[in-house]
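Continued from yesterday's entry.
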Amino acid sequence: MILPIVAYGDPVLRKKAKNITKDYPKLDLLLDNMYETMYGAFGVGLAAPQIGLPIRLFLVDTEPFAEDKDFTEEEQEQFKNFKRTFINAEILEEEGDEWAFNEGCLSIPDVREDVFRQPRIKIQYQDENFETHIEEFDGLIARVIQHEYDHIEGILFTDKLSSLKKRLIKGKLSNISKGKIRVDYKMRFPAMKKKR
C-alpha cells in the first residue's frame, strides 16, 4: 500500500527517532509499504519519519542511479545492486574531504540544492531480520545513507544550506508546508492535518 509522504513543516520530521525491537507490530507489512511508497514516488531512499513514524528505520535502493551515464560502469553496477533496510542505525565514523552534490527530498518536493557531506562512512545497523552489521560505504551510496540517516536524527538537507540559500528557498518551504504544491505522489501536509 502506498502511504502518504509527510511534507516539510510536520513536527515528526524534527523528532529524533526511537529504536525499535524485532516485535515491532507488523514490521514486514510496514517495510513492504515503505518500499512501495518509495518506488511510487521515484525515490532512492525513504525514512520512517517521512511516513509519520518517529522510529529509527530507513531504506535505500540506488538502482535508479544505475541508468545515469554521468557515473562510471563500475559505479552503475554498484548502484544496480544496492538495496538495504537500515534499522536502529548509528553512524560510527564520517571521514574525508566534504564534497557537494545536488540533493532533493520526497518531503521537500521541487527543492534541490548542493549539500556538502563527507565521502566515507562507517555505520552499524540491523537488517530486516535484526541481524547486526557494521559496514563502510563511500561516494553516492554513503551520501544517500547520510541523507536518510539525517531523517532519523530529525535533520533535513535544507538545514545544511547557507543562510543565504535558506532565505532564497523560504517561500518555497512555506508553500510546501501549506500544501501549495503539485506532486505526482501521495503527500500529507501539516496545514491539512490541523483542519481535521
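--- second protein ---
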Amino acid sequence: MTGTLNQQQRATAAIAAFTATGRIPQLRDALGDGLDAGLSVNQVKEILVQMYAYAGFPRSLNALGTFMALLEQRRADGHTDPAGDEPKSLPAGTDMLEVGTANQTQLSGAPVSGPLFDFAPAIDRFLKTHLFGDIFSRDNLDWQSREIATVAALAGLEGLDSQLQSHFRIALNTGLTGAQLRELVTGLPEHNGRTAELLNQVLTGR
C-alpha cells in the first residue's frame, strides 16, 4: 500500500461524505466519478447502504434514489457500467453475534467493551450482530473501503469526535497509512482543522 489514495478510494470518500451531508448535486457528480474510476454498481450500492448505519436511513435512501436515476441516465447516454459481484451469503445457521464480535475485535485490535455497553447492552448487541456482523461480512466491499467511507461520513457530521477517532484507529488496523488518512481528511469537502487535529492525536498516540 502506497502513501496515496487511488482514484476509487478518493471516489469512495466523496460518495460517503456527500451522502452523509445530504448534498445531492455533489453526490451525483461523485457517483459518476466513482463509476468512471472503476467502482462497480454493486460496490457503489454497498457504500450507500452502509451509510444508513452512520447517517440514517433517509440519507441512505435519498442517495440510492440518486444513484438509480444516474444509472438510468448513463444507460440512456450509452454507458455500460459493470454490475460487479454480489456479496456471498454466509452459511445457514451462522451465529451473527459470534461473527460480528470477531470482526469487531479484528478491526479494533482488541475486544470492545465499556460502561456504555454495560449500561445499554442492546446497542452492544446491535453493533456486533448487525453493523460488524451483517454489514461488515458482506464481502463485495473490502474493509479498507468501508473504513474510508465511514471516516468520510463521520468527518462531515457534527459532534462525533469520539467515533471519528475510533474509526481512524480502525482504518489504520485495516492497513491504511497515516499519510493516506491525512490525504483523505484534507480532500474531504467538509475538511477543517478539527478533523486534522483529531487524526493527529491518533497518529501521535495522544
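The chain is about 70% helix and 0% strand. The CA atoms of residues 15 and 30 lie 5 Å apart. Will compare against the first tomorrow.
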